Each structure stands twice: as structure tokens, then as C-alpha cells.
Amino acid sequence: MAQASARHILVSTEAKCNELKTAIENGADFAQVAKENSSCPSSRDGGNLGTFGPGQMVKEFDTVVFSAPVGVVQGPVKTQFGYHLVEVTSRNSYIICFTNCQTC
Known about the structure:
The protein is of the alpha+beta class. The protein is built from three helices and four strands, in the order E-H-H-E-H-E-E.
């Protein structure tokens, strides 16, 4: 099963989200921008959301996290909570393989 780690910044307007994205693209530190601007409790940890699997986040967020390139800030991503900047920090796919299985 796929697993991803991501961090995000949540704000209430698309304009603010675009402003913060520009700042990050111009060299501002993502974690510091999250701490100073995000309305999500994860802001205390620089926007870090930890590791999660598909379906554990809202659909719009999930779609970005499991398709966007790792290490590239995405957004604005609109959800029921507001507007997000999202950075996938890692992603892995795990395949469980059974060999020599026999049924009696």
C-alpha cells in the first residue's frame, strides 16, 4: 500500500495562499511560513502531517499528495477547510507478494 509524508499550510483565502507560495518559491522557508501563517494545528511543527495512506485525507488533498512530485510545493488546493499549499516530503509504495501459495 502506498504511504506518503507531507506538510502543508492552511489559509482562508486563495490570494493569501498564492502570496505565501510566491514567498516560498522566492526562498522563504516552508516550515517558518507554516508556523507564522497556517491555521492548522500542524503549524506548530512546520506544517508536518506525518505519514498517511490513500483515503486518510480529504479527496482534494489526497489527489495531490499521491500524484505530485516529491519536494515541489503544490497549490492552492481548495478543500472544505480552506486553501492549502502542499509539499510531499516522501512517498513509498509497498507491494505484498505471496509466493508458493497452494490451496488444499
